[in-house]
Specification:
This protein has 194 residues and is α+β, with helices and mostly antiparallel strands. The protein has helices at residues 14-33, 55-61, 117-129, 133-142, 150-185, 187-193, and strands at residues 4-7, 10-13, 76-82, 85-91, 98-102, 106-107, 115-116. It folds into 3 domains: 4-33; 37-104, no CATH class; 107-194, no CATH class. Helix 3 (117-129) crosses helix 5 (150-185). The protein is elongated.
């Protein structure tokens, strides 16, 4: 009796095939057990530091995606961050479903989708006040808020750059119009001074 069997046109050992069959059965079992309500996970997650949160947005989205019951921050299992925005995985006390909740609004279209308002506003504020990524992160560290990466800062800086340029051009046009109107209105005074 041979210890090899044919699988998908190739010969493999029976032990290897049996191992693969067991792995597939385990994956199938795990997939089926996901739909069965289970007890809440062992919650040992704790937040380090402070976060910037849009309270109105967060309060509207603290609902289980499955049973639509209220979920609570104390049941947070995991946190991931996108700059200053947090994405919380919160377990429902009723059905144990994990719900992903953002702490702020998202915006954007096309290649700029999945942009976060708080990141855009922080970078805009930094540019407007004349500080860069390093100074912004120094401020955040003093506030005990996790800093943002240089790459993320640059990405949002590229997003707001065209808007800042457009606003500057509009401002210059308005100033030129106003100056022209003042010159026309005061042409007699200007001629007398010369």
């Amino acid at each position: 009796m041979s210890d090899r069997v044919r699988l998908k046109g190739r010969f493999i050992k029976k032990k290897v095939r049996d191992k693969q069959v067991k792995a597939v059965a385990a994956m199938r079992e795990a997939h089926l057990s996901k739909n069965v309500p289970r007890s809440p996970p062992n919650l040992k997650f704790s937040f380090d530091g402070r976060r910037i949160v849009d309270m109105q947005y967060l309060s509207e989205h603290l609902k289980c995606i499955k049973c639509k019951k209220d979920i609570f921050l104390r049941n947070t299992v995991e946190e991931s961050r996108m700059g200053l925005n947090c994405i919380l995985n919160i377990s429902c006390e009723e059905c144990s479903t994990l719900t992903r909740v953002h702490t702020g609004k998202m915006h954007g279209t096309g290649e700029n989708k999945n942009r976060v308002d708080v990141n855009t506003k922080a970078v805009l504020g930094a540019v407007h006040s004349g500080i860069g990524e390093t100074a912004l992160n120094k401020l955040l560290v003093c506030l005990n808020v996790p800093p943002i990466s240089a790459n993320l800062y640059k990405r949002y800086e590229r997003e707001i750059g065209p808007a800042i340029e457009a606003a500057a051009k509009d401002s210059c046009r308005e100033a030129a119009k106003e100056e022209k109107q003042l010159v026309i209105a005061n042409v007699d005074k200007l001629c007398q001074e010369m």
